[in-house]
Design a protein that fits this description.
Layout lengths: L9 H8 L2 H10 L5 H28 L2 H19 L5 E2 L3 H24 L8 H32 L1 H9 L4 H26 L7 H8 L4 H34 L12 E2 L6
Antiparallel strand pairs: 1-2
Helix pairs in contact: 2-3, 4-5, 4-6, 5-6, 5-10, 6-8, 6-10, 7-8, 8-10, 9-10
Length: 270
Amino acid sequence: MNTSLQNLSLVDVGIAALLIVVNGAVSVLLKLDLERKLAWAAVRTVVQLLAIGYVLGWVFQYDRWYAVLPLMALMTLIAGFAGAQRGSRTYAGQRADSIVSIWVSSWLVAAVGLFVVIRIRPWYAPQYAIPILGMILGNTLTGVSLGVERMTEELTARRDRVEMALALGATRWEAAQEPARQAVRAGMIPTLNQMAVVGVVSLPGMMTGQVLAGQSPLQAVRYQIVIMFLIAASSALGTVGAVLLTYRHLFSAEHRFLAARLVERTAGRA
C-alpha cells in the first residue's frame, strides 16, 4: 500500500488549533488560572514554527554552509539562554555556563553523528544537520537546566553540612560531590526514562516523520536508535559540564563555599 502524505491547508491547521480549547476548559473547570499562559503558549507555538518554517525553506533552497552554520549557532545560543532560566536560584555567570556546556556537548556529539555515523555529503546538508542538532539541543538543554537547578537546590539545602565538611578539612570537591552526583542524576533521568519506553509506549518524532514520508520502518528505526544514543551522550556530557561549571563558580580555590553568590532569581538575571 503506497499512500502519499496529504498537504495540510490552513483550515486543517486551524481545526487542530481549536483542540487547545480542551486545555483551556480544564484550566477553567479546575481553576488553574492557566488560560492566559495557554493562549500565549499557543500563539508562540504558531509564530515560532511558522518563522522557522520560512527560514528553513530559504536555507534548504540556498544550501550553503555559511547559511547553515549561523542558523545552527543561533539555535544553540537560544538553547543556552533557555537552559539558564530554570530554578529559583541563580548566580553570576550561569547563562555563560549554560551556553558553553550545551554548545560543546551538542556540537561534539552532532559532529560524531554527522561525520562518523551517518556520513552525509556534504556535511552541512541542512535537511540532516539542522534537525539532528535541533533534537540533540532540545534534550541537552533539559538535562543542563535540571542539573543546574538540582545542584543549586542541593547546595542550599545542604549548606550546613557542606560548610561543616569544609571546616573539618574536606576539600571543596569532597564537600560538593554528593550534591553534584544528585544533580547529574537529575539531568540524566529524563533521557533514561525516554529510552526505557521508546518504541513501546512512544514513537519518537524522527522515526514517525520518516515513516510518514514513506521510509522503510526498519531504516527509520535504525536512524532513531542513532539519534537516541546521540541524545543520551550529549545530555550526559552537557549535564556534567554544567554541574562542574556551577561547582567552579560556587567554590573557591581556597576550599570555601561561596554561598553568597547564590541569589534568588530575579527578572533579567542569569
